Structure formats: C-alpha cells, structure tokens
Amino acid sequence: MPALRLTGGLPALGLATGRPLPPSPMLLWTPTPPSPSSSSSSLTSSSRAAAVPERHVRQPILCGASCGVAAWLVTAAVASGAEAKRRHSCGQRGTCSEFRRPGGPSLTRGAAGLVRRYASATAAEAMPPVGGDAVVEGLAPLPVPPPLARWLESLDEGTREILEIIEGSGGRAWIVGGAVRDALGGLVPCDVDMASTLRPDELRKLFPEAFAIGERWGTITVRHKGAACEVSTLRTGFGAGDGQRLDAIFAERLLEDLAFRDFTVNAMAVDASRGLLYDPFGGLDDIPKCVIRSTSDPAIKTLEDDGLRTMRAYRFVAVRVGWTMDPALAAALCQSPRLLQNISAERIRKEFSLILKGPSAAAVLRKMADDGTLQAILQLQDSLSADVPPEECDSGRHLAFSRGARGMLRRGVRAVGALRKAGHSGAEGAMEALTLLLGGFPASEVERIMLNLKFSKAEMKLVTFHCGCLGHLPDASRPGELRRFLAAVGAEAAPRQLRLERAWAAAEEDAGLREAVLLRLSEVEAAVAALPGGYRVPSRLVDGKWVEARTGLRRRNVGILKEWLFYVQLERDITDVEALDKVLTEHFDIVALHQSPELLETLPKVEWPLAEVGGSSEK
C-alpha cells in the first residue's frame, strides 16, 4: 500500500521535482470503500491512469475540498471497475475516496489540500494529452501554487462546467489574465476570463446563449448556470502596428497567445483540469514585487499592438496601492499621445474614469502629464498653452488660477492627491477628481473636454457645476448667505463642494494663502453645522400658483417673483407664509408691477456662485 508523508514545506512534498513521496509509517492512505483485491494496490502510476476513466483523470483540481486527490491515486476499487459516489460539490459520480489515518478520523482539510496539490503536480505525467501537446509547445508547466489552488477549488459550478464542456468537446481551455493574477496575489477575482483552442463559431455551438459582441476580436461571453465568462480563441494579434484594434489573428499555440498579452502578470494561464500553471514571462515573480512589465522587448511593441494598453498601464498602477512600472515600460509610455490617436473616445474615457477613482490616481496623473498623455486625451486648446493675462482671471475667486494649461494641470493633480489623502475615492471620487483636475479651466473648456471624451450628460452637469462653484466660499458670518449657498448647491452636493474646496485649497503653493483659505473654510463648515437645520435646505413657502393668485401676474413674471420670494425667505429666515406676504406687500405695488413688469428683472435670486453686480459679488 502506498504511504505518503507530510513533512516540511511544499518542496518536501515533491512539488518542485514531481518525484513520488517517500514511504512513511506516519500516514497511510487507505481507500473507502476497501478494495476487494489486494493485487491492485501495487499499480504503477501509468497503469492507474489507464484504469481510471479519462473524465476523472482530467479533473484533479476541479473537485471540492472534501473529496481528496487526483484521480490517478485512486486504488484497487477503481481499477477493478467498482465506482463509488464522490462526496463533493460538483455533484457528478466519480471515484475519489477519503484520506484516513489508520484507525482515526479523516485528514484535516489543510493536510488533504497539500496532498491534493502534490497529486495535481504529478498526475500530469500520466495523463493522456487532449488535443495533442503541440498547443503547449515551448511552455514549461509548473505546479499550481497554493493560493491559486485554493481559488480553483472554490470555483462555482457554472465556471467549472464551462471548462469541462470545452474540454469534453475536444478543445482545450485555460483560465487566463486577471483572475490568475489576482488569485496568486491572494485576492478574490471579480471575473474569469478563459482562452481556448476553439473558434468563436465553435464556442457558440456549445453555448447557444453566449453573447458574440466581441466575436470580431475572437471573444464571446459565455453564460452558464449563473456564471459569465469571457472566452477568447488563442490569438497572436489584431493590430495594425499603429495602436488600432482590427480583426483577431488566431494562434495555434498557447505561448503565442500569452506572448501577445500586455504585461507579465497578465500573461499566465492555468490548466484547471490538470492542475498546471504556465508562466513563460515571469509574472509569478513580478506579483510579489508589485511590478508590471511588458511581455515584449522592447516594451513599445506591446503598446503598439493595442494603443489602449498605454491607458491600461496607467490604470493598473492607479487602482493598486504600491504597484510600480518597470523602467522600460515607463519610458515607452512617452509614446502614448501617438498611440492613442486611433483609439475611440469611449474606450479612452472608460480607462480614464478608472484611473481617476483609483487610490493612486494623483501619482499616475502626474506621470501622464509628464508623458504628455494627459494633455493628449484632454485635447487642450493651443490658446491654453500660453500664459493667461491676469485681467482674464476670475476676480471673484479666492485662489488665483495658475497660468497656462500645464500650470492648471499641476494644480489639479496636487488637489487630487489631497483628495485621495483624505480618503475619498470610488465611483463618486472619479468625478470629484475630474472636477479638481479641470478646476482651473474656463467653463467652456470643461464642457468641450467632457464632450470630446463622451461623458454622460449627468456627469457633465455635475463636473461643470462644481467647477463653476470652486473657489467661491460663502461668508461664514452671514447665516442668510449660508442658507442660500445650501439651497443653490443642494443638501447632498454641499458637503461635496466643501470637500472639493478643501482639496483645492490644499493644492495652493503659497503657504500663507493656503492656510488663510483653509481657516476660512473651517469657519464656513462650523457655521453651517451650527444652523438649526445643518445642511438641510428649507422648503419653499410659496409656489407659482400662490404667486399667480396673489398678484395676477402670468408666465415668466410669476417665476421671477417666486424665485425672489425664496431668496428673501432664506435671507431673512422667514418660516410662515403670512410674513412672506407682508414682505411682498411692503416692496411692491401690485398695480405698478402690472404696468411696469421690467421692475422684476433686477430682483436677485437664489444661485451660486453669487451674481456679479457692478463688479462685485451681489450680497
């Protein structure tokens, strides 16, 4: 009977060499149920593989944690044709048994996992090739590391069956890309991408409900039992050498597909059914170093295969704390402006938005500005490259704008850094970061930039509004102005605006001015908190119907007078309709209003920033 010893680390289990474990009386493996024949216990590994049905040989990793080892370790009961039900989550009939200590309970899950990983690494020697070995020619298989093995064991039923269906049809399938990278890094992958030898049309026959949106590029989205996986045919390219993404060029070998991928940490593939990892470019070594490297030398070739990879390189570092770029890749990114010329605005915007909401966004934006990438994607006008005359600056702002586009971007990048330092990120943080990045630009330029990048109308409205308010603080000593600020900006947006003001002020290079503005901002925040309703905006006491019934005015004039009444309500903190009606009577002769409606044109209304009247902000 074969004996397995659990001593030392993974190398002691033979994972590094693939050699059998030495015999030991410490731990004996016995099948359940017992074998009717003792002669089968001396089977060699090759004869075991021949005796076990192929579908079990091909699934050493896909079984759940409770079921045990690779199929080739199954003993006499299996070789003689007796079949027991496997006890695991995949629900199929099989031949796996438990590990037991002589006379004792089953091995712990951790110990069984170690043996299972040893089985995964060594079973491949006895496995018959599926689809031939040519597809993995040039690749040296590695045993699956423990973090990846644990994640593979937790795969949902739908994902497992997608792999099984492809392999069962005569094709080959590997889990590739970000899922492998994240699992190796100890993270839980958000989605699963696969590479396959089958062409898109063959995959659609296997999975009729698949989405073929990316079929032009060799990718379809397979949905099966709740799982959704992008499955791509092996590819060796689809570019024209100038960053464009054209039709896919299919490959015959896995190595060609991995070589075409962008970064080493994304160029790994795991054969889940055989428990093998393929890492031809050293991504496994780069993960603990937190470094992204190009799969090609020179690095520019990787970027030229798909110009959007420049944005992906920036994004990769922006969304991961502590990650850096290999010097060769970092140097190649200076070619980004040229490579992005043929990339659609929608694709650029998607990556740019992810960069903006990343925790390391500020450092990446600084790198993008140094490379000229930021100026290229924002398509800054030549007029903004020159210094802006002082008389053209907004005199109403408490912080003077930097001169020229480069100065504006530097200020914006520093502000984004202050925002992230305060711990604000996520989806809302992306638009806040964009507001700060564009905070020094005229409103017309902000709108043009966002239109060119195909941002949504809602996103444009939010960013342009906050950019317009940036730098305009209410007077903390005037409760009426504080209430009008809250009403104009909105109860939900007001805290955001003050948060942006703080980040914008923190980016001021003049220390004296910076401290003065931060002090004023603190006073405003304290004054707002001291209001009876805090950030709550008072409701209007009267509406347009009340104004029309009370004055007999029509249409536009009703709206003007209604807005003025709301202004007065907030300024004087009026809480009842009678008091507001008294103000109306004191200020206007209703008959005179009908005869001279132009009197209404000069009335103030609730808005922010404050309207300019005679060269100064209206109070």
Structure at a glance:
The chain has 619 residues and is α+β, with helices and mostly antiparallel strands.
Give a written overview of the molecule.
This protein has 619 residues and is an alpha+beta fold. The chain contains 28 helices and 13 strands. A seven-stranded mixed β-sheet has the order 1-9-8-2-3-5-4, with helices on both faces. Strand 6 (235-239) and strand 7 form a beta hairpin. Helix 15 (345-356) crosses helix 19 (426-437), helix 18 (404-421) packs antiparallel against helix 19 (426-437) and helix 23 (493-506) runs antiparallel to helix 24. The protein is elongated. The N and C termini lie far apart (94 Å). Mean pLDDT is 77; it is low at 1-132, 382-403 and 613-619.
Query: What is the terminal separation in angstroms?
Result: 94 Å
Low-confidence regions: 1-132, 382-403, 613-619
- Total number of beta strands: 13
* Overall morphology: elongated
Mean pLDDT: 77
What is the beta-strand fraction?
Answer: 5-15%
State the major sheet.
7 strands, mixed
Structural class: alpha+beta
Cα gyration radius (Å): 34 Å
* Share in helix: 40-55%
Count of helical stretches: 28
Topology of helices and strands:
Elements: H1 45-51, H2 54-57, H3 76-79, H4 109-123, E1 141-143, H5 146-153, H6 157-168, E2 173-176, H7 178-184, E3 192-196, H8 200-206, E4 219-224, E5 227-233, E6 235-239, E7 245-250, H9 254-260, E8 269-271, E9 276-278, H10 283-289, E10 291-292, H11 300-305, H12 309-318, E11 324-325, H13 327-332, H14 336-339, H15 345-356, H16 361-371, H17 373-378, H18 404-421, H19 426-437, H20 443-452, H21 457-469, H22 479-489, H23 493-506, H24 511-530, H25 544-551, H26 555-572, H27 577-587, H28 590-595, E12 612-613, E13 616-617
Parallel strand pairs: 3-5, 10-11
Antiparallel strand pairs: 1-9, 2-3, 2-8, 4-5, 6-7, 8-9, 12-13
Helix pairs in contact: 12-15, 12-16, 15-19, 16-18, 18-19, 18-23, 19-21, 20-21, 22-26, 23-24, 25-26
